[in-house]
Specification:
By secondary structure, this protein is mainly α. The chain has nine helices and no strands. α7 (about 100-115) packs parallel to α9.
């Protein structure tokens, strides 16, 4: 995945291995959606087929495991995540959203639901940075609004984890 025009990719070294893992997970989710490949095939192609190196991502074992966990978990809960996205994105049909935006949303929401040890503001910031770097001009604001709205509904108990 290449950064959106006018944007630099969020540097994996700037925020450590977890950011690099999120970038890898987004690239794999994007590949799965566009190609229809299985998660396992896309993961193997990304890490073993040289796509990670081509993207400039060097992930250690822990970062790779985190990326794989994000991909598998996001795909396993995709229907649930998509329902959340639909409920939090007024006037936007999921199918009409850009592929990058849709997958950034899924990834962030999976992490919010799955990993209470990562502070929600960190997850939100990472999602916005990914959207700005790899999405369209309005992707950062769109992702921020949807994820933050769902985060608030989760925190209030309106939506169960």
């Amino acid at each position: 995945m290449t950064p959106a025009p006018g944007h630099a990719a969020p540097g994996p070294s700037g925020s450590g291995p977890r950011r690099a893992a999120r970038i890898a997970a987004l690239a794999i989710l994007y590949q799965v959606e566009l190609s229809g490949e299985s998660a396992e095939t896309a993961i193997e192609a990304f890490f073993e087929g040289g796509l990670a190196r081509a993207e400039g991502l060097e992930l250690d074992g822990a970062a790779r495991r985190f990326a794989e966990h994000l991909v598998r978990g996001t795909l396993a809960r995709r229907d649930e995540l998509d329902r959340l996205i639909r409920s939090g994105s007024e006037h936007w049909r999921l199918e009409r959203m850009a592929v990058v935006d849709r997958n950034v949303l899924r990834l962030a929401l999976f992490e919010l639901l799955d990993d209470p040890s990562t502070p929600a503001p960190v997850i939100l910031d990472e999602a916005v940075e990914l959207a700005k770097a790899f999405g369209g001009a309005e992707s950062g604001a769109f992702v921020n609004g949807v994820v933050d709205g769902i985060r608030r509904r989760l925190a209030s108990g309106e939506i169960a984890r």
